Each structure stands twice: as structure tokens, then as C-alpha cells.
């Protein structure tokens, strides 16, 4: 039987960063401008005055300190509050493809492989910058990979769902090796004018190479012991942007055409589901939670991750056991748990077991249990 292993990971981090103070300053300038412009209506009680944001709230509520973004200037301009990412001609590589190529090349180098060793590319992320041709096929062409490619979207769980698809392809024999790439430009769908969530997201791209065990060097990479996917429908995280928007002009530009969530409800409903999913997945593999060396959790909220780790382990997890990258990256959607894995996997020793776990809109949860070879 063919067994799949993770033989390499890569990461593209945009150089520009915005810390909480810079983001809050821009937001509060926007609030002042808005309240001044609507002063009469506010005075008459017809419009509600906007409330300022605060860095202290952001760090306490989420654990986020800063985020990397593709474009900083547009986001912190209170008159714009959206990234400025110029459209490119059809002859140029797309932004997502640029990010993907960097991350994929690092994953290939880590595995000691080249494009000729790979048969498939899956671009798995929350937002695709166009409907078609598939971004994955563009990445495939840019890397010079034969075979096939496709895009998929399961919001924050895209990468772990993509991992399961890659494992299936490798273990069924339809591909020798598969790259799972998550180019997340979350600043493109974040409403920087919304106080409840303007601080949540950042941009990054991850890549994972999944290969046949027999094609890898003994002792290199991570054996994939199992994958477990879970979805259950919820309206608490939504983005109604879509190709039918033009069929009803009344909705164009409304806040629901960007990311919108009931954060408190998401926290309460998703945390127990995630803990249960990890526990039952470990149980099905005859692994005890106490034997877990590391949990690379989705990076949306520090308090949420601490709660989930506590439920799984039955005690508080140390930062070594459940590493945090959201302080530096914020929520990078499906890339988050993979960034944590990429940055915090090399110190594990042969036989160490860990779980990569994503969760988010859908709701969707993806659990991937791995063992250091
Ligand atoms: C979004 C999130 C950080 C908000 O934290 P929270 O503790 O739930 O905060 P709440 O939205 O309940 O707001 C608490 C208070 O802070 C205020 N507040 C909200 N945003 C604020 C801001 N930017 N600055 C200052 N105060 C703010 C609220 O108005 C509220 O005030 P009140 O108590 O007077 O009503 C948190 O709910 C979260 O991360 N949830 C999980 C989301 C998730 O994982 N989503 C997956 C996405 S892919």
C-alpha cells in the first residue's frame, strides 16, 4: 500500500507589516471623519455615531499584535481603507501565483525535489482572485509541472481539506507528489471600516509537498497517520460576494459582500467542536491526547486556541505544545495552521506525534495527524 508523507513546506510572507497602533490610528481617523460628516444626522438621532477601536482591546480579545499585508498604504489611508493591488494584464502572472511560486519553491527545496517530481497542484484558499482559468493551473505552468491542477475553497479549512485530497491522490496512485498551496490575501475581503473585525486578518501563502513514502529519504519529513474532516452549516461567518451580485444591483458594495462574522458565537460554537473532532480523530488512531507532542492549530484567536488545547489535553498547553504565530501574522485563514507547522516542526524527533487542525467558516474543521519519521 502506498503511504503519503509531508516532505516539505514553504512560506511566503509579504514584507509590509501593520501593527495594532497603526491600524487603530487609521480606523479612528476614519471614525472621526465619518462622525463629523454625519454630525447633523447623529445629533437628530437618525444615525449612530461610530465608536473608536483600541489596540489594547485587539490584543486582549485576539492575541494579535501585527499582520503582514500585500499593500499597507491603501489600508491605513482613512479615506480608502482597502489594499491597493493594481490589476494585472492577462500576460502577467497573478498576485496569488507570485506568492504561490515562492512558497512552492521553498517546499520543493526542503524536500530535495524539483517540478519534474510533482504531478499535481491544488490551490486551496478562502478567496480566489478570479473565477477561471484556475489559479492552480497558472501555478502549475509557472513551476513547469506536468499533470493536473485544481482550485478549491473551504475557507479557513482549505489547506487541511487540500491535504486530504493530496493524500488521496498519492495513496490511490493518481499522483506521485502533490503541492497544496494556500495563497491567502485576506486583506482583500476584510472590511477595515468595521470595528468588530478590522484587525482580524493578514496575508501570507503556504505550500506543502505531499509525496509517496517510497520516493523520500528515510527519516525525512512527516508520516501522515490520518486525516479527519468535519463540516456543519452555520451563517455565523459569511461572505456573500459572488458572480450573481450584478444580478441585483441593490446589494453591490454592501458590507455582506466582504467578510462578516458573529465572533462571539463562532468562538463558543466552534471551540468544543474542534476539541471533539481532534479527540475522536486521535481515538480512531488509538492515540492518547497525552501522547501529542504538538498541536499546530488554526490561528484566529489565542484565547480560543488555549481553550481548545486545554479541552484536548485536560490541562493548559505550553506555547511549545501549541505554538502561536497569530501575534505576528493575525488570522491568515487556511495558511495559519500551516505557518505554525512550517515554523515549528524542525525540533520534533523521530516518533513525535502532532496534529495540524484548522477551523472556520462553513463551519469546517480539518484534522491531520502526523508523526515525525
Ligand atoms: C472577534 C473576536 C476577537 C471578538 O472578541 P470578543 O471578546 O468576542 O468581543 P465582542 O465582539 O464580544 O466585543 C466585546 C466588547 O468590545 C467592544 N469592541 C468590539 N470591537 C472593538 C474594538 N475594535 N475596539 C474596542 N472595543 C471593541 C464591543 O463593542 C463589546 O463592547 P460591549 O461589551 O460594551 O458590548 C472574537 O470573538 C473571536 O476571535 N472569535 C472567534 C472568531 C473566529 O475564530 N473566526 C474564524 C474566522 S475565520
Specify the structural class. alpha+beta
What's the architecture of the domain at 222-372 in CATH terms? 3-Layer(aba) Sandwich
Beta-strand content estimate: 15-25%
- What small molecules does this complex bind? coenzyme A
The residue fraction in helices comes out at: 25-40%
The CATH topology of the domain at 222-372 turns out to be Peroxisomal Thiolase, Chain A, domain 1
Radius of gyration: 21 Å
Q: In DSSP terms, counting alpha (H) and pi (I) runs of 4 or more, how many helices?
A: 10
Terminal-residue CA separation: 18 Å
H/E series: EEHHHEHEHEHEEEEEHEHHHEE
Largest sheet: 9 strands, mixed
Mean pLDDT: 97
Strand order of the largest sheet: 5-4-6-7-1-8-13-12-11
Characterize the overall form: globular
What is the number of beta strands? Answer: 13
The top-level CATH class of the domain at 222-372 is Alpha Beta
Summarize the structure in words.
The chain starts with a strand and ends with a strand. It has ten helices and 13 strands. It has a domain at about 220-370: Thiolase/Chalcone synthase (Peroxisomal Thiolase, Chain A, domain 1, 3-Layer(aba) Sandwich), CATH 3.40.47.10. The chain is globular. A hairpin with a 3-residue loop joins strand 12 and strand 13. The longest helix is centred in the C-terminal third of the chain and has 22 residues, at about 265-285. By secondary structure, it is of the alpha+beta class. The mean pLDDT is about 95. The strands form three sheets. The chain has a nine-stranded mixed beta sheet, sandwiched between helices. Strands 2-3 form a two-stranded antiparallel ribbon. Helix 7 packs parallel to helix 8. Helices cover about 30% and strands about 20% of the residues. It has helices at about 20-35, 40-45, 55-60, 95-110, 135-145, 160-170, 265-285, 300-315, 325-330, 335-345; strands at about 5-10, 15-20, 65-70, 120-125, 150, 175-185, 205-210, 220-230, 235-240, 260, 290-295, 355-360, 365-370. Coenzyme A (COA) binds near residues 237, 300 and 361. Coenzyme A binds near residues 53, 58, 62, 195 and 263.
Amino acid at each position: 500500500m502506498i503511504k503519503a508523507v509531508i516532505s516539505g513546506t514553504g512560506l511566503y510572507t509579504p514584507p509590509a507589516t501593520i501593527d495594532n497602533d497603526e491600524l487603530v490610528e487609521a480606523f479612528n481617523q476614519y471614525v472621526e471623519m465619518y462622525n463629523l460628516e454625519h454630525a447633523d444626522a447623529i445629533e437628530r438621532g437618525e444615525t449612530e455615531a461610530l465608536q473608536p477601536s483600541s489596540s489594547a482591546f485587539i490584543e486582549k480579545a485576539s492575541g494579535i499584535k501585527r499582520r503582514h499585508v500585500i499593500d499597507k498604504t491603501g489600508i491605513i489611508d482613512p479615506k480608502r481603507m482597502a489594499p491597493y493591488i493594481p490589476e494585472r494584464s492577462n500576460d502577467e502572472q497573478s498576485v496569488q501565483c507570485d506568492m504561490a511560486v515562492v512558497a512552492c519553491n521553498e517546499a520543493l527545496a526542503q524536500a530535495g525535489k524539483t517540478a519534474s517530481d510533482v504531478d499535481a497542484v491544488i490551490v486551496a484558499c478562502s478567496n480566489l482572485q478570479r473565477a477561471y482559468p484556475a489559479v492552480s493551473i497558472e501555478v502549475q505552468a509557472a513551476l513547469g509541472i506536468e499533470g493536473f491542477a485544481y482550485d478549491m475553497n473551504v475557507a479557513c479549512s482549505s489547506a487541511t481539506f487540500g491535504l486530504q485530497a493530496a493524500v488521496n491522490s498519492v495513496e490511490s496512485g493518481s499522483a506521485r507528489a502533490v503541492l497544496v498551496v494556500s495563497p491567502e490575501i485576506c486583506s482583500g475581503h476584510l472590511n477595515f471600516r468595521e470595528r468588530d473585525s478590522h484587525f482580524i486578518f493578514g496575508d501570507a501563502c503556504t505550500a506543502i509537498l505531499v509525496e509517496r513514502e517510497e520516493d523520500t529519504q528515510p527519516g525525512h519529513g512527516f508520516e501522515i497517520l490520518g486525516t479527519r474532516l468535519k463540516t456543519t452549516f452555520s451563517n455565523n461567518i459569511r461572505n456573500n460576494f459572488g458572480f450573481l451580485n450584478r444580478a441585483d444591483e441593490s446589494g453591490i458594495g454592501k458590507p455582506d459582500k466582504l467578510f462578516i462574522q458573529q465572533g462571539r458565537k463562532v468562538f463558543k460554537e466552534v471551540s468544543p467542536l474542534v476539541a471533539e473532532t481532534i479527540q475522536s480523530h486521535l481515538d480512531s488512531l488509538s492515540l492518547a491526547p497525552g501522547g501529542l507532542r504538538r498541536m499546530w492549530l488554526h490561528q484566529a484567536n489565542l484565547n480560543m486556541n488555549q481553550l481548545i488545547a486545554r479541552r484536548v489535553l485536560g490541562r493548559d498547553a505550553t506555547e511549545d505544545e501549541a505554538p502561536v504565530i497569530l501575534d505576528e501574522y493575525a488570522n491568515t485563514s487556511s495558511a495559519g495552521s500551516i505557518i505554525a507547522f512550517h515554523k515549528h516542526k524542525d525540533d520534533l524527533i523521530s516518533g513525535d506525534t502532532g496534529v495540524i487542525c484548522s477551523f472556520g467558516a462553513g463551519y469546517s474543521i480539518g484534522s491531520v495527524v502526523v508523526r515525525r519519521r
